[in-house]
Amino acid sequence: MAQEDYRKALRLGQKEFRSSVLKGTYPYLQALDEILEHTAVEYTEPLGVVNIPLASIVGTKTAGRKTAFAGNFMPLLDEDTEFAQKWNALCDAHLSVGIRDPIKAYEYMNKFYVEEGNKRVSVMKYYEAMSIPGSVTRIVPRRSEDKENKIYYEFLDFYDLTGVNYLWFSQLGRFRAMDQAVNSRPGQPWSKEDRRDFQTAYYNFEDAFHRCGGARLPITVGDALLKFVGVYPYETIRDKTGREMAAELEKMWSEIEALTQDEAVELSLEPTTQAPPLISRILPLEQSRLNVAFLYEKSADTSAWTYAHEFGRGHVDEVLAGRVFTKGYDNIRVGENDDEVIERAIADGNDVLFTTTPKLMECSLRAAIRHPEVKILNCSLNMDHPSVRTYYGRIYEAKFLVGAIAGALADNNRVGYIANYPIYGMVAGINAFALGARMANPRAKVHLMWTGEKGVDALSELEKRGVELISSQDAGLPRGDKHYGLYRLDGEEPVPLAMPFWHWGEFYERILRGIMDGRWKLEGNEAGRAVNYWWGMASGMIDVLQSRSLPRGTKRLAAILHKGLCSGTIVPFEGELYAQGGVMIQAEDKQMEPEEILRMDWLAENVEGHIPAFYDLIEEAKPLVRLQGIYKEAQV
Predict the structure, then answer these.
(1) Domain ABC transporter substrate-binding protein PnrA-like: where (predicted)?
(2) Helices (H), 232-297
């Protein structure tokens, strides 16, 4: 029996050897000593006896035995050698009592190299075991700017919390994200039960991943698992079998394939002007009637954000009457009844769903995977989900114009700016406002405050500083607080001067017309990329409303800027740009890329204030910031 197993293992080793030679890759095991000859080591650390995942054992400590094995640890020596006899004896021991003696190995960059026990590893790999006990010494490289090095140091922090050594990611920030996704107390050590449950879930998912063909993708099992638990919460899948997970994973495979894209998000910066296919202009429309649902976290009575979208829904009802029929679903409790409400909207016969807050992205994604025939769009930015299209406006263009108005009116050169949370696009709005203010008034300083920062009363603090001209939230309720847009403090009531205006109806109308005339397919994602609509003032989606009381010269300036922003002759983030402290961000002959604007995490030099750290945010802000925040992943 063992002799026949050796023959099979030998054939596997020879096949791997020939394949490596044909590919031009090294055909033997890697030797750690040879790797370390060119590596600066920070320290070594004994880990004691741990279970080593066999998939992570890739080589030997020294060069002595490396040519006895192919790169997959299968033997290369003939079956009449003493080596083969010892290998066969280990096979017999494994089948009768099991291989129990720990090997001796070194861990470097979360890969393992065997010093004693190469044949034991070979036998266990042949029998497709998951792990083998080993006495391990960790060798830690010196910190560097290399991406793999940074990921490894994130792994070390994760290992300290979890003791998990079989998980790996291809991108920064994902170890912390996994802890947040599966740990009921993120940042705290895992219990034995936590470790046991996660190990079971991981290996079941690995089975599912391979069933679906994941081995062909240039991503890790961990990458795919993190995406999976972003769709199906960990507590709902940790007891599923590999076969059950595979059924769910297959439905969302486009989401997994998106992980292989260098640029997973395709930004649509302007409405398409491409004509629909000729066939759709000759034949009857594919869908001449649409039922459309609008889903809101809050109601139009309590939320200015919901009120603005409801205003947009009213626009659709008016301009597309008889062709589009809409219905609103409000007061959705995120994480409680969101899946139920979105399923009800689909059961009600709606063909298109607009979910109007990033907080509804997770339920939108699950619904899109369950119902691929329904078109679902979520109001958010920079989300890499091919199954759900996202939409937002380049509000920084309007902020630039409002900033210019503020700068022109700032008699004492002081302008206040009240932001809420540091999420995608927010800092771009602050900086565009500051650049506009400085353009109109080179001495203008923007005093930045955050409503989402703990212990801060933004309005009171600005009043203490003698700031009378303030830009706050974009809009308010008709009968609510008047502290929104750009206003001047003058007695008890603020005096409105200008405000960005979200014309959601314009966006919704264009999207729905595109669905009915076939343009939706023209804008479809290619090669698994997500589609994000990020339109500006030229689309009509965003504008600036101005008070009639503005001075004539200020109105003239605003008109010139408005025309330039719409035509593209004025670009807020073009030319020489400096951050606080005089740090040059961009040279004179450059124009900032859209992705750089989205992820902007610096403040313009004429801004007085800061971006609050994640731990300084109020609890209400943290879920949204985790989802859409500008922080580097490791900070959250």
Answers:
(1) 291-453
(2) 234-237, 242-251, 253-258, 278-282
Sheet containing 607-608: give its strands across.
542-546, 493-502, 486-490, 469-471, 414-419, 445-450, 607-608
pLDDT digits (tens, 9 = 90+) for 423-470: 999 999 999 999 999 999 999 999 999 999 999 999 999 999 999 999
Q: DSSP states of 476-530 as a string?
A: --TTS----SEEEEETTEEEEEEEEEE-HHHHHHHHHHHHHHTHHHHT--STTPE
Give tens-digit pLDDT for 201-229: 999 999 999 999 999 999 999 999 999 99
The mean-pLDDT minimum among 164-168, 172-176, 442-446 falls in 172-176
* Number of residues in the chain: 636
The CATH number for 1-142, chosen from 3.30.70.270, 2.30.30.40, 3.90.1530.10, 3.40.50.300, is: 3.90.1530.10
616 and 453 Cβ atoms separated by less than 8 Å: yes
Count Cβ atoms within 10 A of the Cβ of residue 215 and give its class: 0-12 exposed, 13-18 middle, 19 or more buried: exposed
Which of 411, 390, 420 is closest to 467 using CA atoms? 411
CATH topology of domain 395-504+540-635: Rossmann fold (3.40.50)
Residue whose pair of structure tokens reads 């769910």 in the numeric block: 248
CA distance linking residue 592 with residue 2, whole number of Å: 65
Q: State how far the Cα of 531 lies from the Cα of 3, in Å rounded to an integer.
A: 57
How far apart, in whole angstroms, are the C-alpha atoms of residue 538 and residue 551? 25
Tokens (6 digits) for 334: 């995120």
The DSSP result for 37-52, as a single string, is TT--EEEEEEEEEEEE
DSSP state of 413: S
Residues paired with residue 288 on neighbouring β-strands, in sequence order: none
Q: Per-residue pLDDT averaged across 533-552, rounded?
A: 95
